[in-house]
Amino acid sequence: MTTLDLIGSSPRFRAVLTEVARIAPVDSAVLIQGETGTGKEVIARAIHEASPRRNNRFVALNCAAIPSALLESELFGHERGAFTGACAQTKGRFQMADGGTLFLDEIGDMPLELQPKLLRVLQEREFERLGSTQTVRVNVRVLAATNQDLAELVAKKLFRADLFYRLNVLPICLPPLRERVQDILPLTEFFVAKFAARLNKPIDLIPDEVVEVLKAHDWPGNIRELQNCIERAVLFSPGSVLRVPLDMTQTVKQRSESASRTLADANREHILETLKQTNWMIGGQDGAANRLGLPRTTLIFRMRKLGIETRRALAPRPIQQLADEQCRAAASC
Ligand SMILES: Nc1ncnc2c1ncn2[C@@H]1O[C@H](COP(=O)(O)OP(=O)(O)OP(=O)(O)O)[C@@H](O)[C@H]1O
Ligand SMILES: [Mg+2]
Fold this sequence. Notes:
The protein is of the alpha/beta class. It contains 17 helices and seven strands. Strand 4 and strand 5 form a beta hairpin. The longest helix is centred in the middle third of the chain and has 15 residues, at 184-198. It is globular and about 65 Å long. The relative contact order is 0.11. The model is unreliable at 252-260 and 314-333 (pLDDT under 50). Adenosine-5'-triphosphate is lined by residues 5-8, 34, 36-42, 147, 223-224, 227.
């Protein structure tokens, strides 16, 4: 069992926690929707921890991070010789999560051809490993998450309607941080304490004007962006008084404007703005991926999806910088 940091006392967040308590004891699928960084995985873990399955495994799989050709084997496992390179029988995530919970992140990226097999295991609790005719039965609760509009994907025939309804038995919608401004101060205090301890950099005071700047920001990257911002702020504050980066104080909240934009537009603009600030550098300590709190590969994936030219960002960089990035990437593996 793990302890979860679930900070927030706004009415919107308390309503989410009430939902978590209500749906945790049952076994139906849950669809957690919300913008990037709103805490979908945190809430999935909270559901597992509050459920009777808490003493069994919580297995997570990001459907967008696995090439579609490998996803079936990753989910359902394979027999020896099922495909080139399959040198031993392998259990998939469904079997690993038997008795526990399987969290399917970025479910909107599940390839259409795999969706019937997922639907079957949700309905019948059975499947076959790749290359096998033997049926495997499992007892797994599925929690799925997405920051895409699944209903819209269904309308565009990019996601199966039957699977959508099956997953959407218990929907949870996480509010964006800009709609729960009341939580910004407790979250800031929590992250300041966390990073002050981690970076060995005591911070005694969060000035009111800093809190006002944080409350006025739009936070398109939500809690992850706030967390990242506070990490940088703790690191770069000259003394024990928290200071936020200048570029933030210049960011004016444009709620009325953002309300008329689509989520994709907002994400696109935010990524472009961050790339501009980092001179189109994606990786590295000062790169856009780090500022946005995303792994470099995830940012590149999102840029491609949003039609942002990656070539410019990936233009030749000094050899030392590339070497540094590769060292860091290797170190984080
Ligand atoms: N209520 C909370 N209290 C404290 N930290 C939180 C809370 N919610 C989220 N976080 C932190 O914010 C970060 C983002 O959360 P999480 O990964 O769950 O978001 P997400 O919605 O799954 O994002 P994405 O769509 O990009 O995958 C994590 O570091 C998480 O620990
Ligand atoms: Mg996530």
